[in-house]
Amino acid sequence: MTSLDSRLDIRPMAGSLGADIDLAGPVDDALFAAIRQALDDHLVIHLHGLDLAPQDLVALTRRFGTISRAPYITHMAEHPDIVAVKKSADERKVSTFGNAWHSDFSFLDQPPMASLLYAVQVPSHGGDTLFANMYDAYDALSDGMKALLDGLDSMHSGKPYGTGGVPGNVAVSKSIGIERNRPEADREVAHPVVRVHPATGRKALFINSIYTQRFAGMTAEESKPLLDFLYAHAIRPEFTCRLRWKAGDLAIWDNRCTLHYAVNDYDGQDRLLYRTMVQGERPVPAIPRETLRSFETALA
What we know:
Elements: E1 8-12, E2 19-23, H1 29-42, E3 44-47, H2 54-64, E4 67-68, E5 83-87, E6 114-121, E7 129-133, H3 134-139, H4 143-150, E8 153-156, E9 189-192, E10 194-196, E11 203-205, E12 212-215, H5 220-234, E13 240-243, E14 250-254, E15 258-262, E16 271-278, E17 284-285, H6 289-299
GO molecular function: metal ion binding; taurine dioxygenase activity
Domain TauD/TfdA-like: 10-277
Protein name: TauD/TfdA-like domain-containing protein
């Protein structure tokens, strides 16, 4: 048990990442600074027993930075900064929102730096969220693989929302409004495969199986073997933690150094959470691309 502030009780969730946190008292500037530091230290923080109205969640999100709205997703009419992440009890055998390993909306030019998810109604069992530590995933690679990946970019796109849509045999929850067949979602954006976290200075893998399409300068077929290896490597059990929800819980995670996965194992039960996101910056590569280009020119 550790504490950055006497009002903040922090207990690690797993060896790699995650912390359970109990708060005592209102979140003043000093306590918020301790929460922010806990997020840098643990990557995912799980705060218990809160009673947040939607406007409270929005206000807390703004303390982290500018709010980022999720593209192609319907937000709450009365609270346009919030997405209601919902699956109804009568929706069975459907794909749920976030039901694959990913970093939120990594196809944006400036992907969100953090996401906040507040539990309003949760099933009696199931509906957990898994997280994976992309610092540890990078650190566990061989020196040769690190050297290769440090200089690579990958192409991300909002393909699930684009003209290809989702496979016709996949039933998708109707409780969340999702736009499909949007041509602009097919646009590819280059991001470094290995990014440097602006606060910690650590290197993290930045690829995910939903939005990463290929390596820059390669075809999807050429990219697939290495991407498949990285996807499997990134979610090794020792890099993960599991968050079990109760109503009134708030999870905050850093999208720049984690992946997450919503477990879809609660058919016949209602689940409702409110989600907001914080605007991020353009990912910083492990090797500045100007340096890389100068080196390549010198070798030519």
